[in-house]
Amino acid sequence: MTALDIRTDTTATARRAAPDVVLLAFRVVVGFLYLLHAVMGFGAFGGVDGHGAGLPVGSAYWWVSVLQVAGAVLVAVGLCTRIAGFLLSGLMAGAYFLMHAPAGWNPLLNLGEPAALYSWIFLLLCAFGGGRYSLDTLRRR
């Protein structure tokens, strides 16, 4: 085996692994960013009013925050990724249509762009799953 063969084999292996590594990074970053959004319902990072207020414990929106935290963690580690993605996609679609769309059709003007993007991001994760580097894959082995 020559140096060229080794280099070609290494390059081919890296090309095959790249989509799985990118999906891992995507899941972890999306899960982390969504977790930051979710814990605002409990008063973190300025809370729901910008002054540290949390949602009333036990209220419907408080339970939504609980689901968002759980879903963000599941997505980040790649456990039950398709189910979590489906649930979170629905939550964010609901948030968009119930909270933002009544203020107008344009997501830039009704401040619904993040909700719309998260809805589609989570739908993508629902379709693709957690990938090779996920607890879903580890659990199947």
UniProtKB/TrEMBL annotation:
It holds the Pfam family DoxX. Its main location: membrane. The chain crosses the membrane at residues 21-48, 60-79, 86-105, 117-135. InterPro entries: DoxX, DoxX-like_oxidoreductase. This is DoxX family protein. Keywords: Cell membrane, Membrane, Transmembrane, Transmembrane helix. It is found in: Cell membrane. Belongs to the DoxX family. The keyword Cell membrane applies. It comes from the Bacteria. It comes from Pseudonocardia ailaonensis. It is a multi-pass membrane protein.
